[in-house]
């Protein structure tokens, strides 16, 4: 049996009735008789609807295979700068935020293609998302991680299972984010942390970008552009909405911070890759990013930040 898979068994529970699960003939069966399949060591607790099945193809790998080499190079350069700035929401590298380095179990909620899960320096990293096809691929690619097909609103985990839950650009893709936060609270150990990042409704670049995308029907030209893949259920949060979300949640201890201002060069350089030929391109975006990061810390400029970042402690 796969090691990461067997480590998963003690924390799993039936997402429907929360009764214990047993592995019978490569299927999970709960004592309430709910049955779930397992595909290539990936437990499947929910079924993806047709719309999301198409949407799941928009994830990074597929997108990367469809763009030009130049655009890909621009993408990589931007990513390298973001990484040097410590932007874990794009590099997927949240490991430096794990409180204790010893025996951590971390849930990557909305793990997409599993790259972010593979970068977590947790003792046990668990990725959860909706696409079986994607996660079977992820499991083959990152055998040391566990992947689970599940619904974030009905997590298939026992109470107090995780030291940390990371939800990078995830909450704004669900209709009932408050239900997801409640579930995160339930599956976190006492003292465990939830980290979330979601786009701000009033960031001018995002605001104009989304408008243009809809207005110019860019979906036809860039159907798989990950940053603009506007799902059926995609929302953005104003500062007030994001605060309300957590104020009404079971978390009593949370901090919301404005995060980043720029991303115009990121988008622009993918659409027009020759921009990266501009002298000192890397240094320019590094400096602008730092400046933006500083600016949004000064109210009322926080209202136009790119992301809201929340750290909540159970
Ligand atoms: Zn059940």
Automatic annotation (TrEMBL):
It holds the Pfam family Methyltransf_11. The chain crosses the membrane at residues 264-281. Keywords: Membrane, Methyltransferase, Transferase, Transmembrane, Transmembrane helix. One of its GO terms (biological process) is methylation. InterPro entries: Methyltransf_11, SAM-dependent_MTases_sf. Residues 107-195 form the Methyltransferase type domain. GO terms for molecular function: S-adenosylmethionine-dependent methyltransferase activity. This is Demethylmenaquinone methyltransferase. It comes from Candidatus Woesebacteria bacterium GW2011_GWB1_33_22.
């Amino acid at each position: 049996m796969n090691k990461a898979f067997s480590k998963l068994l003690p924390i799993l529970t039936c997402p429907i009735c929360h009764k214990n699960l047993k592995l019978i003939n490569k299927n999970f069966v709960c004592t309430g008789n709910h049955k779930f399949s397992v595909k290539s060591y990936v437990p499947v607790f929910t079924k993806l609807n047709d719309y999301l099945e198409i949407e799941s193809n928009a994830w990074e790998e597929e997108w990367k295979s469809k763009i030009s080499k130049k655009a890909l190079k621009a993408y990589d350069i931007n990513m390298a700068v973001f990484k040097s700035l410590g932007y874990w929401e794009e590099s997927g590298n949240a490991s430096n935020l794990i409180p204790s380095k010893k025996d951590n179990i971390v849930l990557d909620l909305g793990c997409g293609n599993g790259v972010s899960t593979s970068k977590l320096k947790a003792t046990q990293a668990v990725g959860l998302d909706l696409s079986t096809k994607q996660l079977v691929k992820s499991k083959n690619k990152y055998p040391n991680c566990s992947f689970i097909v599940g619904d974030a609103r009905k997590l298939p985990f026992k109470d107090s299972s995780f030291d940390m839950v990371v939800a990078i650009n995830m909450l704004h893709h669900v209709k009932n984010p408050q239900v997801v936060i409640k579930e995160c609270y339930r599956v976190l150990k006492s003292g465990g942390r939830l980290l979330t990042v979601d786009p701000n409704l009033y960031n001018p670049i995002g605001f104009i970008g989304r408008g243009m995308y809809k207005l110019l029907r860019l979906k036809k030209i860039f159907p798989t552009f990950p940053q603009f893949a506007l799902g059926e259920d995609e929302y953005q949060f104003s500062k007030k909405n994001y605060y309300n979300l957590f104020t009404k949640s079971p978390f009593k201890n949370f901090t919301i911070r404005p995060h980043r201002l720029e991303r115009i060069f990121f988008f622009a350089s993918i659409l027009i890759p020759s921009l990266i030929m501009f002298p000192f391109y890397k240094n320019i975006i590094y400096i602008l990013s730092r400046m933006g990061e500083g600016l949004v810390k000064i109210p009322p400029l926080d209202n136009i930040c790119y992301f809201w970042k929340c750290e909540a402690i159970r």
